[in-house]
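#dry-run=false #mode=assembly
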Amino acid sequence: MDNVHLAALAVSLGGVESLIQHPTSMTHAGMSQDAREKAGISDGLVRFSVGIENVEDIIEDLEQAMAKIS
Amino acid sequence: MDTKNKGFNTKLVHAGSYEDAFGSAVTPIYQTSTFSFKSAQQGADCFAGKSDGFIYTRIGNPTIKAFEDAMADLEHGFGGIATSSGMSAVSSVYMALLGQGKHIVCSASVYGPSRGVLERDFSRFGVEMTFIDTSDLQQIKDAIQDNTTILYIETPTNPTMQLTDIKKASEIAHKHEITVVVDNTFSSPYLQNPLVLGADVVLHSITKYINGHADVVGGVIVAKEENMYKKIRGQMIYLGGNMDPHQAFLTHRGLKTLSLRMEKSEENAMKVAEYLEKHPKVEWILYPGLKSHPQHELAKKQMTGFSSMISFGLKGGLDV
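#status=ok
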């Protein structure tokens, strides 16, 4: 997630700008591991709020970040 | 301007607009803590609820009212209550409807603090709670107790993208005289109108789609009926959870372009979702607009679009 540059690594959502975050360690960190599992919030879940930038730029940004995953 | 029978975009632009002494094109920021009365009698009438005049900004303010009226119109409710944050809206509703020995049934996967404040704080005041998957109507039926006062639903849920059938869930709750509260933050009134589908109260973190520019934190509640509106408004005033006039001005400004932003972000989200779904490193993806979403049909029925929130997981987890 650190490699995504156009989308800001930030909580919140629904804005003109794209935002990416990790609920387990961020928005839902206050829940117990057990409660998260029961609610279906897996540790690997990534939440992406898509903004109104040019979509080809959003996808290109994701593409270069994905390419860094071995 | 009366926008009750106008189209959604006309409401966005014109609802909650009133003439003022200067013919202002938009509602100005009434940055004032208090309002002077024309006479002692008028002041007394304001406090007694016999006059519509403003008293004190924690109770009401013209800039805030303009935004509240617009939201009430957009969500098809009796009245709007703007709050300092989304959590202030959630807490106002909880405080108004819960109490010692009362019980709430809540979607297990909701915005973290909406659940956290129940578990950490309302539990200390003797409130009972059951967290379930509200997308499963049988679980709602099974969770209802004699002392249940709220069915609290988020749809789609944050961040698990589960949908709850608002109409059917409301029918179940109303048989037991339970108030149905829906957090509509993920959809906005552009895509979903919970009050029309049967809910009693709808709330938003306006920090998200309603304002849409990542520069305001705030919330809003809209109640379908007058009595419920008055009950929650009174609670918000005593809690001290009011929105600030400057917040209301910025939020109302952002609201006017809601349709345009929702349309564009959803168009982008569909393309991003399709890209991720085909990506070899993506293990799973949940986006209500994809046919692969288990509740895609409900999304098409209940919402007029799919919004722009996507949850996905990578093969091998996040640390690969």
